[in-house]
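Final report, closing paragraph on structural work. Over the funding period we assembled a curated collection of sequence-structure pairs, and we close with a single example.
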Amino acid sequence: MNDRIRHVRLYSVVLPLDHPVSDAKVLTGRQRPMTEIVLLFAEITTRDDQHGIGFSYSKRAGGPAQYAHAKEVAGNLIGEDPSDIGRVYEKVLWAGASVGRSGVATQAIAALDIALWDLKAKRANLPLAKLLGAYRDSVRTYNTFGGFLHVPIEEVKERASKSLDDGIGGIKLKVGQPDSRIDLDRVRAVRDHLGAGVPLMVDANQQWDRSTALRVGRALEEFDLVWIEEPLDAYDAEGHAHLAAVLDTPIATGEMLTSVAEHVRLIDARAADILQPDAPRIGGITPFLRLAALADHHGLQVAPHFAMEIHLHLAAAYPREPWVEHFEWLNPLFNERLETVDGRMLVPDRPGLGFTTSELCKAWTVDSCEFRPR
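Its predicted structure, as stored:
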């Protein structure tokens, strides 16, 4: 007989950040500095004592809502064949259909879906990338953490140099200051520091209007950027499409969207040269793979947002050469580390995602619940 799911455990974890973090949303007064990340973990165990782990996350708000919705639907996994991920996904999605198919609902389901994929790869004794069909054993990687707006420019340069010394291949800077001249000065300082050959990106975190994005985008052309990220509101497909058409620098966006359907609107509008989907935000690996197929069909690059522990595997299985964002924020939650060499992040050879949760993860757990056969 096929194996069956016998136990699901959910737990909410509050990860404190070492220092408050500010991007352009803080400088424009729309958000407060970020001090913590709230994660929803799901652990799935089968009758044959196979285990899978997955997680979703929220920044500033939404963590308790994700956990609450996951508690409502997770019991539907009990007794299901863990190999039937597509069917299980639809069952859980319809169990919460009244709250929709985006936002908190899909983010809650994502933790369960990712745990099922982790479990499936472990049962095959393969890294998830190999189970999906990897195109490469390493992925280009860039660092974001060193370029936040609260960091003085001299420290930004120091962090950039250290990232390159640590084997990371590119550097991303936050922009979107109320005075765009400050942005241009910071980008120029880092470009001069790094030299012409180092990949450099900028991220405005949706804080420009259309005229500002066009004006600053043209001024940024001289720095030979890999991309300009989120120059406009995440849902302004038409505005992003205009920028993509008139600027030489590629436009990247998509991280804030919470469904495949929302990304399809970007694709149809030709609003991005580089899509930046986030598997925990759009509902997990199952919808991410659907979106990846669409993106490849339209000739787009991808650079998944955050959660490198998950996205490294998905990027390795994408046909076109992608980028993965290097963030160390989640490191304390896991016992293992990802390796970067010569500008690339190496796919681990451990089965599944290749991670186990740490003692700190347990210490930062604020609530948990379990589901078993009745």
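The first strand starts at residue 5 and ends at 21. The CA atoms of residues 124 and 131 lie 8 Å apart. We thank the funder for supporting this effort.
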